[in-house]
Amino acid sequence: MSRRIVLPVLAAVLLGACVPVQHPAARVEHHDDFGTPVGNTKVAEGGDLVMGLSSEPDKLDPTTSSSLYTRYVMSTICEKLYDLDAGGEIVPQLATELPTIAPDGRTVTIPVRTGITFADGTPFDANAVRTSLDRHLNNPESQRASELGPITAITAPDASHVVIRYGKPFAPITAALADRAGMILSPRALSEEGDNFGDHPVCVGPFTFVERIPQTLIKVARDPEYYDAEDVHLDTITYRIMSDANIRAANLRSGDVQVADTISPQDVDALAKDPDLRVLQSPSLGYQGITINVGNVDGVGKPTRQLDTPLARDPRVRLAFSHAIDRQTLVDTVFNNWFEPACSPIAPQTEYASDASNGCPRFDPKESRRLLAEAGVSIPYHIDMQVANSQDQLRFAQAIQASVAEGGFDLEIIPVEYSTLLDVQKNGTFEALQLGWSGRIDPDGNTTRFLATGKAANYSGFSSSTLDDLLARASQTTDVTQRAVLYGQAVQLLQKENPVVYTYRLRNLTVHATRVTGVEVYTDGVVRLGRAAFVTGED
Amino acid sequence: MLRYTFHRLWQSALTLALASIVVFIGVRALPGDPATAMAGEEADPAAVAAVRAKLGLDESIPVQYLKFLGNAIRGDFGESVRTGTPVRDMIGATLPVTVQLALYAMLVAVLAGMAFGVIAAVFRGRWPEWVANGFSLFALSVPTFWLGILAVLYLAVQLGWFPASGYVSPFSEPLRGLYYLTLPAVILGMTHAAVVQRQTRASMVETLTADFVRTARAKGLSRAAVVFRYGLRNSLIVVTTIVGLQLGGLIAGAVVTERIFGLPGIGKLTLDSVFTRDYPVIQAVVLVITLAYIVINLLVDLLYTVIDPRVRVSGRAQ
Q1: Interface with chain A: mutation pick from B28, B38, B42, B81, highest number of A CBs within 10 Å
Q2: Residue A26 — very low, low, confident or very high, per pLDDT cuts 50/70/90?
Q3: Is A235 helix (H, G, I), strand (E, B) or coil?
Q4: Residue A203 class from Cβ within 10 Å (0-12 exposed, 13-18 middle, 19+ buried)?
Q5: Which residues of chain A neighbour B149 with C-beta distances below 8 Å?
Q6: Cα B71 to the chain's mean position, in Å?
Q7: Nearest CB to A142: which of B40, B47, B153?
Q8: How far apart are the C-alpha atoms of A302 and A459, rounded to whole Å?
Q9: How many CB atoms are closer than 10 A to CB A160?
Q10: What is the per-residue pLDDT for A2?
Q11: Using CB atoms within 10 A of its CB, is residue A185 exposed (0-12), middle (13-18) or buried (19+)?
């Protein structure tokens, strides 16, 4: 074969191998399935349920924990003041009602349960709640302090009420108490264990901690003292750590584990066809996106300085980039349409979403090229993008690379390992960077920390006084409709400025064996096993 | 001999000290630190700073190193940054798993490798040799991680012959323990079996064509006696060297195998602790593995003197 023929053929083969975009199959609509409570199903009392956990939890201490997967284990041993229900509404768990907020928004009163005990027999009351909240707020290693907001005092006027006082109103508090900041720890265990509480966590919950073998498993056993013990069926739950998605899928099919989280979209279709398995799916509260470094030069937290590149300086270049991403096609092809395109940090299924926050820049490569020309940059415009070296992340990045090429961008992908990527993000040594956020119940947790001037996670180094004002007002307003309007305006500003180019929103994909029932996963992604059971006739 | 042993021990201590410095500086050269890696996507700066101060990461590297060394000499490797478990306990729990896996895999490698090696040497130029050589070519060329995943998919998931993952201690339940370890040990042992097969074959062929073998046959010794008494005995020395060298490779291979089969061994511990920048764990694990290498090498050298009297004689002459 002459070189004239060989080269194009070789080029075609190589290009074909690089571009993962295939023609999407007919779009299948995916419907939420949060799992079903045990209800009237006949279930066995007892049994050991094994869950394949996708990542190892850190210390089982709600105050210092920063791993999402710690929440999965804690959900069975450590109840919170509030919880979510399947509809995404906040409902009381250890509290008895939603908090009462004084008209000035600065005093929050929480009525709490009485007459119940922690797993070590210590009575649960308002004082115990105060002790835990104090620890979440004041422990130097606490990851919860910022979630609790500008608290000035926490008091327990009687056994069944806790009062939190604020310097200025802080709307996200109820949602924060439906997450780790709302977990209440046994005061006795706290005084005995101190900083080592996470080695033997003791809370109120359907299960109690038994043992942990690092990197291997965490085991919990039914707590007979639990206030709602008649609804708890299993004897024990073993969380086995299985970080590889293929391995989790294989273990589900072989029956070695009965529940597994974070199933890859590459595996889920095959698992969905297995009659012995059921796929649970819920939309995520978080987002995936590309952070563009605008002014993070000396590291996050330091004063920002304008980076002198067209991408950092000129919002038109960033807007062009956003127009050049064909979100729907990418999500459909790379993730077999299991995930949804996203253009904003406000999850569309929440009450804070509006038409304004759900709007999305259309895929328009012509517009992209026009904007680039208007900005006076040479086409193709080169961007280095750092990406975590996981399979799904790389595949998506490659698809973006192919998509934005049409809009006039030459995107270079730099794969780095996850911990390195966190470091790069913090130090500001990137041009663009693809990383997601798991999401919080209150939209403030998905916006302010990343976008407001000088905040701890404003990795883009973005600063806009208008946006700062919108986000601050939204966090201080308790009226949901008003907040939705403010977040809508914030999103419209973001879609012009694009310090973060939002790309897609995950669905929490969890699979469980059909011989198990009562496994539930809501929008916070936590796999709730506390009331699960084996269906009768099998163990 | 005493002087030789002393010399070897001194060398080992030096190697260990150098390894500790290299790993200490090496892990700190990686981007990120335990506090950032642990905080993950939630990086509350005050909390990260508090964790750094608690771990002593703000001190200079030489000071950190001396503190680590002082503690390590007393057998205190500190606590895991991520889980708060004492590192000594973590190694105590994971090392036996890897040792069991490595020994089992080596047993598979030696038995299969020598069997195929003998077959290939005895049936030189005929189909059994092609089969044996084909096996070794396959085992050498196919990467362990791929073979491992295939084995899980077909032997565990489709056929259900083996568990897909997990570990049961052979000391508490011997049969179940072996059953859980079999598939990982076979997968891990295969590459090494191939190496053993090649060396056994080469050594056997050399011995079987040697003059003394022809003489032995001429004096009426049976073919089987020649193969097993001379051929195999002579190839043992080669196999012992290989086993010694390969045990190091087995520990490296264990990292992959343990991850695929979810075995709670030291390989998986190493990998996970590197990803989370868990300095105390990485440092201790690398020291333990270095120590294991040194001990294995020492044992192999001593074993030579048992297997091959010639080594003993030359050792005395020195």
Answers
A1: B42
A2: low
A3: coil
A4: buried
A5: 246-247, 250
A6: 27
A7: B47
A8: 11
A9: 17
A10: 44
A11: buried
Structure confidence at residue B237 as a pLDDT band (50, 70, 90): confident
Q: Which comes out higher in pLDDT, residue A69 or A233?
A: A233
Q: Which of residues 294-313 of A touch B (CB under 8 A)?
A: 300-301
CA-to-CA separations, B231 to A428, B214, B236, in angstroms, rounded: 65, 12, 9
Residue in the structure block whose two tokens are 């009485």: A114
Q: Which of B48, B57, B83, B169 to mutate to test the interface with A (most CBs of A within 10 A)?
A: B83
Residue matched to tokens 């006039």: A408
Name the residue among B32, B51, B165 with its Cβ closest to that of A256.
B165
Residue B1 has a pLDDT of 62
> Is residue B93 scored above 80 in pLDDT?
yes
Cβ contact, residue pair A254, B85, below 8 Å: no
Q: Which residue has the higher pLDDT, A407 or B240?
A: A407
ipTM: 0.73
Class of residue A355 by CB neighbours under 10 A (exposed 0-12, middle 13-18, buried 19+): exposed
Task: Name A81's Cβ contacts closer than 8 Å, sequence gap at least 6.
Answer: A92, A93, A94, A95, A110, A112, A129, A177, A178, A182, A184
C-alpha of A201 from chain center: 24
Question: What are the chain B neighbours of A68 within 8 Å (beta carbons)?
Answer: 40
> Residue A246: closest CA among chain B residues belongs to which residue?
B149
For chain A, percent of residues with pLDDT exceeding 70: 94
Position with higher pLDDT, B231 vs A26: B231
Nearest to A434 by CA among A392, A399, A386, A389: A386
| Partner B contacted by A456 (CB < 8 A) | yes
Q: What is the pLDDT of residue A24?
A: 47
**Tens digits of residue pLDDT in A133-147:** 999 999 988 989 989
Confidence grade of residue A472 (pLDDT, cut at 50, 70, 90): very high
Closest listed residue to residue A195, CA positions, set A119, A139, A263: A139
Q: Using a CB-CB distance cutoff of 8 angstroms, which residues of chain A are in contact with residue B255?
A: none
Confidence check: pLDDT of A488 > 50: yes
- H, E, C per residue of A462-510: CCCHHHHHHHHHHHHCCCHHHHHHHHHHHHHHHHHHCCEEEEEECEEEE
- Provide the chain A residues 156-215 that lie in CB contact (below 8 A) with chain B: 196, 198-199, 212-215
> What integer pLDDT is reported at residue B199 of this predicted model?
86
Place of tokens 């929008």: A523
10 Å CB burial of residue A25 (0-12, 13-18, 19+) is exposed
Strand order in the sheet with A100-101: A100-101, A107-111, A161-166, A151-158
CA atoms within 13 A on the CB side of B266: 28
Phi/psi at A123 (5° precision): -65, 145
pLDDT at site A482? 95
Task: Give the pLDDT score at A233.
Answer: 96
Put simply, the answer to whether A66 touches B42 (Cβ < 8 Å) is yes
Q: Residue B264 and residue B267: Cα distance in Å, rounded? A: 8
Question: Given this model, what pLDDT does residue B211 score?
Answer: 84
pLDDT for B166: 77
If you average pLDDT over residues A121-136, what whole number do you get? 96
Are A400 and A334 in contact by the 8 Å Cβ rule? The answer is no
Handedness of CA B184, B187, B191, B195 (dihedral sign): positive
Nearest to B50 among A141, A216, A240 (CB): A141
| Structure-derived torsion over alpha carbons of residues A330, A332, A337, A342, reported in degrees to the nearest 10 | 40
A40 touching chain B per CB within 8 A: no
Q: Is the pLDDT score of A507 beyond 70?
A: yes
